[in-house]
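User: My instructor asked us to take a sequence, write out its structure as tokens, and then describe one feature of it. I'm not sure where to start. Here is the sequence I was given:
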Amino acid sequence: MIAGAAAVLGGVLGFHRLVPNWPGRIGSLVESFLPWGGVLVVVLLVLALVRRSAVALVALLLPVGVWVDTFGGLLLPGEEHGGRELVVVQHNASDENRDPAGTARALIGSGADLVALEELVGPQVAVYEKSLAADYPHHVVRGTVGLWSKHPLSGERIVDIKPPGIEEGWSRGVRAVVHSPDGDLAAYVAHLPSVRLGLGGLASQRRDESATLLGRAIADESVETVILLGDLNGTVEDRGLRPLTSQLSFAESGFAFSFPAAFPVARIDQVMARSATVGRIRTLPATGSDHLPVVARVALE
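Assistant: Let's start with the prediction itself. The structure tokens for your sequence are:
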């Protein structure tokens, strides 16, 4: 039984792309929690040791090898790139955040060059603008997303990632050119539609459609270096984000599970890049949001 479970787990880890995405986008659901396959490997390993099953231990070599090959690099400290790099923070600040000023102070403490925020609503926007102004004199807010920068910005514009069927006025994408000392880069901030898990499976169609629109916008970007920061409501393994992960690199090191803040099980807050390398990614302590902020070093090529 243990050997059979190990074989199935190894097959899922190694060939998850072959899992059909229907019904209920089951493929995306499996991919969202792939890193937790390591926990199942440990449980099976303990059972195999307790039962002293040599067959089960041999069978476990497959899922162990696949998991280490897929996720083992994230456990390493990551390379020190040095030189031309930016520190960036991505945070869904939550439209129910009761302490935006405290959240701003926590983000300033990261020493980031760029801060991307989502779910900016009502009077919270003014609080963030006031609280971040001294450290981040340049910023842009469009709809419910914003970017704060230590370096000058230009070319600010809305990025239309609204999928069909969503009401007018929904605006969750912004782009600006950051004029850093090491060269210009296009920074995108995006908040893709939420997904829901129900009896019918994973409801992610609108998220997937929005990811496609965002992927097209980035593919058409004329500035060579691109950094995408956003709550993408999906992990980098999720095939629904393939329009982005197929053309952008992501973190070399660190799991940085960011949601939900009370017990994080997945990183849906992402930092991705083109013509740049995202190094180790990590989370910051909880703020007044249901997401944890993530911070990463991005080495410019």
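For the description part of your assignment, you could build on this observation: The chain has nine helices and 13 strands. Try explaining in your own words what that tells you about the chain.
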